[in-house]
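Worked example 3 (structure in, sequence out).
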């Protein structure tokens, strides 16, 4: 026993011996005062946090109302619809030729966005400097305009991208007090190339979820079915683009956060190889984890827009802003090549079942590419002694969730991450004990092994072992592709149609079963819409989708009422071969549906 506790106990015995009532009262006080003080401190901090959030939300709503009224007086609804319905190449051409002014185009997208936002809730804040940017661009002469490949193109930006003078909260109230002093590297590069950021868009709280809700900005809805989620965490981007409110925008992806929303909203999206696009000056709740890196991502209505923006963020516009990015310029010859490719395709990645309509979309895309002269081969996931899902989760939460729990202290926790937060708030020692027991008692059940990843790494040695396993798994993929000569792989993007919004049930992590693996192995991947679910598809999908356990039943529920929702194909290429990925995405997008 330490001297402090020894002398304290002796003192209390002395007090109890001389006056039992006094001693008892002092004992109760010695215990209750620290507890009460801690409670009062937590209560004060929570009230301060919620008051700060309320004031911030009121300020954002005021900005929205003011900007909405201003824009409504600048352009008619009919004219706005006419401009925003143009394709990317049409809009780009008209802006360069001076047939449309940058300010009119900006007003058009603002008007449509504010109108659609009423029922979808994808805007968190208008970019207040957008008009000044557009007017400055309009003042440039023809020669100066030609040097700006994105001259006058309005873009939407996910809220986690820092912009000087704005707040990047990632849906966490604690971050409201921080104002960004610098602008994200990729945002600055796009602005330097002539783009005009005009709205900042909603996200899932902490961005560690495929859903679309946080306690600051609320719930974003899917434009194709208001009862469903647009996916996440780049929820606002997918809703804005699918509703016609934006032509192209910036999302981010560490476990499918541009591809799942892209697939569920029927738009295109690209997750590059980590390190190809800048991630300078972005906000995250988890910092320092480098085993599975997050990336900036592009989301757009059409592949042509993805290509033009990829050219910009792999050019000197980007390299001059972020010196840490390798100078890997866009390989035009690879994108435009007509050389026949070897296309691998997979319709099922164990253990999460995928609907038959989604499988058929992949098979049809492969068949169409075969007709164009490309070699098509089936491909299966390589076997590996550890479970990739467990490795990914252990990498994301290598610290046992300490950062995430600390950042959400005293805050409201969204339904989209409540299950995760309950698991993370358990002590690391207990999580590691449960993980060890689960490994021995139920080694055959992948889901329990998946959950053991939340325990994180118990020490540096285990963290090194995890990184080594991930490197081995990545090498397994690369070696297998090289042996089979595969250039691009086609696979489902999501196992089910867009999930219904359900605060009581939360969201299913299993919906990301076909996307997170590409983050783990660090392969570039994009999604492209390819057909829609027919009434026959819906009936067949529901009849044949398994319902043997809770996870499968949860996923199966989302098949009901899915007629008319989009089907998508995921295109995957080897690391740093984004051009090859985009080439195949473009070929698929041109197929007559």
């Amino acid at each position: 026993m330490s001297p402090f506790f020894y002398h304290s106990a002796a003192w209390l015995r002395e007090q109890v011996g001389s006056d039992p009532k006094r001693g008892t009262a002092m004992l109760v006080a010695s215990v209750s005062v620290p507890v009460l003080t801690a409670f009062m401190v937590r209560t004060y901090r929570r009230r301060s946090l919620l008051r700060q959030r309320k004031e911030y939300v009121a300020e954002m709503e005021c900005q929205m109302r003011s900007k909405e009224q201003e824009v409504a007086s600048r352009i008619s609804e009919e004219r706005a619809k006419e401009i925003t319905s143009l394709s990317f190449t049409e809009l780009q051409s008209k802006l360069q030729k001076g047939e449309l002014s940058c300010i009119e185009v900006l007003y058009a997208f603002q008007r449509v966005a504010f109108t659609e936002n009423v029922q979808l809730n994808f805007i968190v804040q208008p970019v207040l400097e957008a008009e000044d940017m557009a007017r400055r661009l309009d003042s440039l002469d023809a020669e100066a305009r030609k040097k700006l490949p994105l001259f006058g193109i309005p873009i939407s930006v996910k809220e986690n991208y820092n912009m000087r003078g704005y707040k990047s909260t990632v849906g966490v109230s604690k971050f409201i007090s921080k104002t960004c002093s610098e602008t994200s590297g990729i945002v600055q590069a796009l602005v330097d190339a002539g783009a005009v950021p005009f709205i900042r868009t909603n996200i899932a709280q902490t961005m560690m979820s495929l859903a679309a809700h946080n306690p600051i900005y609320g719930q974003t809805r899917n434009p194709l079915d208001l009862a469903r989620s647009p996916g996440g965490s780049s929820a606002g981007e997918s809703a804005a683009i699918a509703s016609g409110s934006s032509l192209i925008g910036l999302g981010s992806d560490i476990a499918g956060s541009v591809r799942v929303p892209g697939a569920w909203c029927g738009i295109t999206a690209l997750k590059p190889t980590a390190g190809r696009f800048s991630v300078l000056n972005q906000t995250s709740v988890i910092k320092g984890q480098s085993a599975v890196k997050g990336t900036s991502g592009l989301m757009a209505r059409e592949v042509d827009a993805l290509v033009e923006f990829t050219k910009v963020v792999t050019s000197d516009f980007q390299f001059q802003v972020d010196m840490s990015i390798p100078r890997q310029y866009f390989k035009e010859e690879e994108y435009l090549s007509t050389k026949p490719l070897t296309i691998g395709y997979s319709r099922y990645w164990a253990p999460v079942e995928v609907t038959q309509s989604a499988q058929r979309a992949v098979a049809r895309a492969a068949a169409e590419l075969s007709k164009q002269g490309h070699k098509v081969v089936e491909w299966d996931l390589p076997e590996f002694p550890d479970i990739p899902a467990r490795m990914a989760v252990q990498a994301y939460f290598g610290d046992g969730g300490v950062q995430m729990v600390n950042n959400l202290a005293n805050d409201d926790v969204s339904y989209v991450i409540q299950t995760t937060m309950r698991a993370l708030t358990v002590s690391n020692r207990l999580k590691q004990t449960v993980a060890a027991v689960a490994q021995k008692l139920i080694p055959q059940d992948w889901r329990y092994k998946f959950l053991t990843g939340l325990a994180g790494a118990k020490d540096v040695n285990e963290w090194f072992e995890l990184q080594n396993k991930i490197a081995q798994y990545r090498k397994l993929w690369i070696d297998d592709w090289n042996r089979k000569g595969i250039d691009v792989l086609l696979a489902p993007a999501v196992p089910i149609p867009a999930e219904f919004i359900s605060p009581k049930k939360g969201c299913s992590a299993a919906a990301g079963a076909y996307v997170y693996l590409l983050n783990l192995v660090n392969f570039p991947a994009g999604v492209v819409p390819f057909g829609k679910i027919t009434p026959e598809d819906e009936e067949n999908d529901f009849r044949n989708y398994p319902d043997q356990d809770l996870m499968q039943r949860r996923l199966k529920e989302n098949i009901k009422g899915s007629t008319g929702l989009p089907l998508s194909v995921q295109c995957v290429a080897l690391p740093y071969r984004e051009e090859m990925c985009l080439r195949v995405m473009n070929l698929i997008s041109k197929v007559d549906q």
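Notes: The chain has 24 helices and 13 strands. The radius of gyration is 26 Å.
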